[in-house]
Amino acid sequence: MIAENLKRIKASLPDEVTLVAVSKTKPVEMLQEAYDAGQRIFGENRPQEMRDKQAQLPDDIAWHMIGHLQTNKVKYIIDFVDLIHAVDSLKLLEEIDKRAAKADRIVDCLIQVHIAQEQSKFGFDTAEVQALFASGKLAEFEHVKIRGLMGMATFTSDKDQVRMEFDKLKNSFDLILESKSVKTQVFNILSMGMSGDYSIAIAAGSNMVRIGSSIFGSRN
Ligand SMILES: *Cc1c(COP(=O)(O)O)cnc(C)c1O
Q1: N or C, where is the chain less crowded by C-beta within 10 Å?
Q2: Burial letters for 66-101: b for 16+ Cβ neighbours within 10 Å, e otherwise?
């Protein structure tokens, strides 16, 4: 089932779009099944769960932290995490930088932008993110590499709403590139799109989709 799902989804993705298989809450056996079907990038949202799975699975997996990350949990993943998607504060970035320095690593990160209507979602708003990049503060972190932006659309069946939100994120991404505050070769990841909305996200310019339930089945 997992292998078939992966095959079907991969076939629907343009070549330049990277698939993150979101395996949160799923047992390692299911991740192994996806691995055996060729999947090498997995997304988790709980640091301890990711660490425990990483220890049990092959070394050539790239682990992506996709959820809100508390500063006191950075230590669980800093030695191996490949990409942190949801950086939503400077405080978190400082902690990642500090821990990465100790681990003698440079860790790739995305800045999370709040595009959904929901109040409680994490992330910088579109004005704040422009200000953040313009401030020059991001360049001060020597052990963090800012690779792009990430966002989540409102959970709604209103496709126009979702499209509008993804367009907003793509626009933020383009404005940052135009501002010349980043290098094009480095700042090149736009992570948007999940099981229910990834086609809309790709049409809007996403090049990294985070897909869970369409691969592994629904979560409880
Ligand atoms: C759970 C999760 C996903 C995957 O959601 P599905 O609807 O199962 O594809 C993607 N991104 C984030 C940030 C998530 O927490």
Answers
A1: C
A2: bbbbeeebbebbbebbbbbbbbbeeebbbbbbbbbb
Which residue puts its alpha carbon closest to atom 12 of ligand 1?
Answer: 66
The answer to whether the CB of 195 is under 6 A from ligand 1 is yes
**Tens digits of residue pLDDT in 84-119:** 999 999 999 999 999 999 999 999 999 999 999 887
The label of the residue with tokens 């979602």 reads: 121
Q: How confident is the model at residue 56 (pLDDT cuts 50, 70, 90)?
A: very high
Question: pLDDT digits over 75-89, tens only?
Answer: 999 999 999 999 999
For residue 194 and ligand 1, the question of a CB distance below 6 A is answered with yes
| Closest ligand 1 atom, residue 196 Cα | 7
- At position 195, the amino acid (one-letter code) is S
**Global pTM?**
0.97
Q: Tokens 């897909």 — which residue?
A: 211
Ligand 1: does its nearest atom lie under 6 Å from the Cβ of 26?
no
Q: In degrees rounded to 5, what are phi and psi of residue 118?
A: -60, 135
Give the 3-state secondary structure of residue 164.
helix
Position in ligand 1 atom list of the atom nearest CA 45: 15
pLDDT (tens digit per residue) in 168-220: 999 999 999 999 899 999 999 999 999 999 999 999 999 999 999 999 999 98
